[in-house]
Design goal:
alpha+beta, Sulfite Oxidase, Chain A, domain 2, seven-stranded mixed β-sheet, five-stranded mixed β-sheet, 8 helices, 12 strands, binds ligand MTE, binds molybdenum atom
């Protein structure tokens, strides 16, 4: 396959002008909120999730990230990367109503005893949305703290009884250019694909997300179901999943197919290994403004204690 993508800098994660515009709009929103326009809001977010959002049932707090201050709902849901819904940071929010998230089912197959298809409603009914997790989620060039709602990926995977041949899990996003207009352009080899090693997939911190701030996930954030792997860079967290396959060899993944020297399969957050075109030692946090001091990037995004053992004996410069 030839690389169909435009020059990589055109697809770069963060664009300063884009963020400047974004910030300006957000200041306007905050001014409106301060002036009493819009609903008053309890606790947590300065800009609240919309009331009409369907609330997730059975949420409870997890111990993760309780000390972190979450990014505003408005920022989390209007500054996105979802190429199927456009290449600009604000296009996904604008285009999200093309995506219909019901009915929705996920095919699970490959190296397992009980392959099958499961409907999103059945998932929501039978797997408790028991974790409301504040996580420091860092992407390639900026960071957010997002109170994701969802459940451990392991809880879903176990139902399909993976066999001993299942060494990796491969994920696939919906392919439907009608609903995902970005797929009409050949910028990627659609559908978007990602993968994890089996032990990463079964780790309790690896989650499938159905909500944010306690309400149903909006389309731009990958509704109705997306992956979050808190110790990895953002591109691993594939959105709007329709396929999960257990496989015995390392699966192909979108970004490492496209730019293998820039994006690895593992993509563990690592301040010691720079991206070829930018340092990973520091990161900006969305919501703090362009001129705010950057933050030191933490190894494994701050979760080294929980996950470093998974990579014992591996050269993380080689397996980046
Ligand atoms: N299907 C799909 N999943 C995707 C992407 C994408 O373009 N398509 N972008 C990835 C990248 S690069 C990032 S940084 C995160 C962004 O998630 P957010 O918009 O919820 O912050 O989604 C990831 N998942
Ligand atoms: Mo990203």
């Amino acid at each position: 396959m030839l690389i169909k993508v435009r020059r990589s800098w055109e697809l770069k994660e963060s664009s300063v002008t884009d963020e400047a515009h974004f910030r300006q709009r957000r200041r306007l929103l905050q001014a409106a909120a301060a002036a009493g326009v819009g609903a008053a809001m309890p606790a947590i977010a300065r800009v609240s999730p919309p009331d009409e959002g369907r609330r997730l049932a059975n949420l409870r707090d997890s111990r993760w990230g309780r000390d972190l201050e979450p990014t505003d709902y408005e920022d989390i849901t209007s500054y996105n990367n979802f190429l199927e819904l456009g290449t600009g940071k604000r296009s996904p929010a604008r285009n999200a109503d093309h995506l219909r998230t019901r009915p929705w089912s996920i095919r699970v197959g490959g190296e397992c005893e009980k392959p099958g298809e499961i409907d999103i409603e059945e998932i929501l009914r039978t797997i408790p949305q028991e974790e409301r997790i504040y996580r420091f989620r860092c992407v390639e060039a900026w960071g957010m703290v997002v109170p994701w709602g969802g459940f451990s990926l392991a809880a879903l995977l176990k139902r399909f009884e993976p066999t001993s041949k299942a060494r990796y899990v491969a994920f696939e996003t919906l392919y439907d250019p009608k609903q995902l207009p970005g797929q009409r352009r050949d910028i990627l080899d659609w559908p978007y694909r990602e993968g994890l090693r089996m032990d990463e997939a079964m780790h309790p911190l690896t989650m499938l997300v159905t909500g944010v701030y306690g309400v149903e996930l909006p389309g731009q954030n990958g509704a109705p179901l997306r992956l979050i792997v808190p110790w990895k860079y953002g591109f691993k967290s594939i959105k709007s999943i329709v396929g999960i396959h257990f496989v015995d060899t390392q699966p192909r993944t979108t970004w490492s197919d496209l730019q293998p020297d820039e994006y690895g399969f593992y993509a563990n957050v690592n301040p010691e290994v720079d991206h070829p075109r930018w340092s990973q030692k520091y990161e900006r946090h969305i919501g703090e403004g362009l001129f705010a001091r950057k933050h030191k990037t933490l190894g494994f995004n701050g979760y080294a204690e929980e996950v470093a053992d998974l990579y014992k004996g591996m050269d993380l410069r080689k397996f980046f």
